[in-house]
């Protein structure tokens, strides 16, 4: 049970860091892509690989 005194604060710290990273990405508009992959895949030149 003594290990819980270490694991609980560590897990709360890591969860907090994950929340901070998520909020930072939302603030910097990392998820803001109105066109998105759904529209990009429909364009004829979406695949930039050379054709054989």
UniProtKB/TrEMBL annotation:
Signal peptide start-end: none
InterPro entries according to UniProt: Cyt_oxidase_maturation_cbb3
Keyword Cell wall biogenesis/degradation: no
The entry's keywords: Membrane, Transmembrane, Transmembrane helix
Pfam families, sorted: FixS
Coiled coil (residue ranges): none
Superkingdom of origin organism: Bacteria
Chain positions covered by the region annotation Disordered: 31-52
Spans traversing the lipid bilayer: 6-25
Cross-referenced PANTHER family: FIXS PROTEIN (PTHR41532:SF1)
Protein name from the UniProt record: Cbb3-type cytochrome oxidase assembly protein CcoS
Annotated organism of origin: Falsigemmobacter intermedius
Source taxonomy: Bacteria, Pseudomonadati, Pseudomonadota, Alphaproteobacteria, Rhodobacterales
């Amino acid at each position: 049970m003594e290990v819980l005194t270490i694991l609980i604060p560590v897990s709360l710290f890591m969860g907090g860091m994950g929340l901070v990273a998520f909020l930072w990405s939302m603030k910097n508009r990392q998820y803001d892509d109105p066109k998105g992959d759904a529209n990009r895949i429909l364009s004829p030149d979406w695949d930039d690989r050379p054709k054989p």
